[in-house]
Design a protein that fits this description.
5 strands; 5 helices; alpha/beta; 122 residues
């Protein structure tokens, strides 16, 4: 069974790294968003198994997008990405329903492990 992943980060190069990492590990990247609003729209359209979303994005940040996605689907599986030094935001994201978080700069192994862990797969 293919695992569908949605990527949300305002930096295209981060989305490229995540896409290459996850595609290389056998996951199916079904969409890429550059803003929180786009992430919400793409989540509704694609209904991915997991979302990897940056906390800091323009217009609507990842925390607000996380809350909107979880309001629309309380079983949504969202992994938040953040920079070092944003512990308060990580705590807030977990409180809002994020299943895990990845700290930038991240390693490909950490990204794949986080997805597998939150989905309870090998």
């Amino acid at each position: 069974m293919a695992i569908d992943v949605l990527l949300a980060d305002d930096l295209a190069f981060i989305r490229n790294v995540l896409r290459d990492t996850l595609s290389g590990a056998g996951f199916n990247v079904v969409g890429e968003a550059g803003t929180g609003e786009e992430a919400i729209e793409l989540f509704a359209e694609t209904r991915p198994d997991v979302v990897l979303m940056d906390i800091t994005m323009p217009r609507m940040d990842g925390l607000d997008a996380l809350r909107a996605i979880r309001a629309a689907d309380d079983s949504a599986c969202v992994i938040m990405c953040t920079a070092l030094g944003q512990e308060r935001l990580i705590s807030e994201a977990i409180g809002a329903g994020a299943r895990d978080f990845i700290v930038k700069p991240f390693t490909p192994d950490r990204v794949v492990a986080a997805v597998k862990t939150v989905l309870n797969i090998g």
